[in-house]
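Hey, weird one. I pasted the Phosphoribosyltransferase sequence into the form twice and got a warning about non-standard characters only the second time. First submission, copied straight from the form history:
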Amino acid sequence: MPTLTPVDQPEFLTAVHYVAARIRESGWRPDVIIGIGRGGLIPAVYLSHATSIPMLSVDHSSHLPDFSAGLLATLAGMSAAQRLLFVDDINDSGTTITHIKAALRDAGGAIDNVRFATLIDNVVSAERVDYRFRTIDRTANKDWFVFPWEQVSPVDKVIEDSAVVPERLA
């Protein structure tokens, strides 16, 4: 069984404010924040409110083209004239970011206008993010982080979700 590490609401709010401050300090202001479903949707909503930047969403986890590939093609077109900030809860293996970057490139997106933010960033991930609250090293930290919105799930469902990619926690 994985070690379940709760992220409480005060820490979550601190993380959102921290990431918002890093975005402001960077001098790069996104035109749109895009929440990556499921885990990045709530952080994106909060970040949208904290920065007064409008928010959209994609749902990579659903594997439904109308909610992922189709929307990423639309966002690729938007990236020619707008700055896009994709938000997720954690950059773990990097596969989600790799997928999004590839989909945007394949659809002719302007990757220079795209950045990524997460609450937690795995330093040994295949991908890097531009903004983060905290870092972990998955070679040493195998905890499964349970964010406030996940804490309403039955524990067995949280454990089931953690087992989707077992090498993250092994």
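That's the output from the first submission. The warning seems to come from a hidden character in my clipboard, not from the data itself. Strands lie at 4-6, 32-36, 55-58, 84-91, 114-122, 131-136, 144-146.
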